[in-house]
Specification:
Layout lengths: L2 E7 L4 E7 L5 E5 L6 H6 L4 E6 L5 H4 L2 H8 L3 E4 L31 E3 L4 E4 L2 E7 L8 E5 L2 E5 L2 E2 L2 E2 L9 H10 L9 E4 L5 E2 H7 L5
Parallel strand pairs: 3-4, 4-5, 5-6, 10-13
Antiparallel strand pairs: 1-2, 2-3, 7-8, 8-9, 9-10, 11-12, 13-14
The chain binds zinc ion (2 copies).
Length: about 210
């Protein structure tokens, strides 16, 4: 049984997801963004088994440093972005000084790879490599729950004009990976409201 709580964090209203499951008192965080105070208050009495990053843009990793220090939990990130956590240039925090100070933290403890199974909080998550918005973008699937980062949004897709972004890769990731999941799959994106694969197949104007 997966329980999902959503926290909209920071100036870009990035969705952080707090997952709890079969093991009482244990949790996983996906994409702890900037200004993580509400999330930090919530996890006071939880053991964090892992921080999973869909990708290493500043608005998704802005809370990593603080939570990792507080909880001593490992971070998982695709190795194509292994230098990004320590580089304000690569994670984008240098580019919008009015939005964000330069951000840098230690590298991830573990690499993510396509097809990998992650056994966390008593559940098994499958990792999909879904590049395009960024080279190391990953999506995480548990049963019919999909965490899609900045690849697929409700009625939208991720931008491809940032370093390492590529429109054709993004469309391939959506068409050939995400759209192979059942229509009932619930999509929890990096920004904005949740949706389903079926709804996006029918209505998303950016996927063709
Ligand atoms: Zn992003
Ligand atoms: Zn984002």
């Amino acid at each position: 049984m997966l329980n999902i709580e959503t926290f909209s964090l920071g100036p870009l209203e990035t969705n952080a997801y707090l997952l709890t499951g079969a093991e009482e008192g244990k949790a996983v965080i996906i994409d702890p963004g900037m200004n993580p105070e509400p999330l930090i208050r919530r996890i006071e009495n939880l053991e964090i088994e892992a921080i999973l990053l869909t990708h290493a843009h500043f608005d998704h990793m802005g809370g990593v440093e603080e939570i990792r220090k507080l909880k001593g939990c490992p971070v998982y990130l695709h190795d194509l972005e292994k230098d990004w956590l320590g580089s304000p240039k690569l994670n984008g925090s240098l580019r919008w000084p009015s939005v964000c100070p330069p951000l840098a933290t230690e590298p991830a403890e573990y690499d993510l790879a396509a097809g990998q199974k992650l056994n966390l909080i008593g559940l098994t998550f499958t990792v999909y490599h879904t590049p395009g918005h960024s080279p190391g973008s990953c999506s995480f699937l548990y049963e019919n729950h999909l965490f899609s980062g900045d690849v697929l949004f409700r009625m939208g897709v991720g931008r491809t004009d940032l370093p390492g972004g590529r429109e054709q890769d993004l469309l391939n990731s959506i068409q050939n990976t995400l759209f192979t999941f059942s229509d009932e799959t619930i999509v929890y994106p990096g920004h904005g409201p949740k949706t389903t694969i079926g709804m996006e197949k029918q209505q998303n104007p950016y996927v063709y």
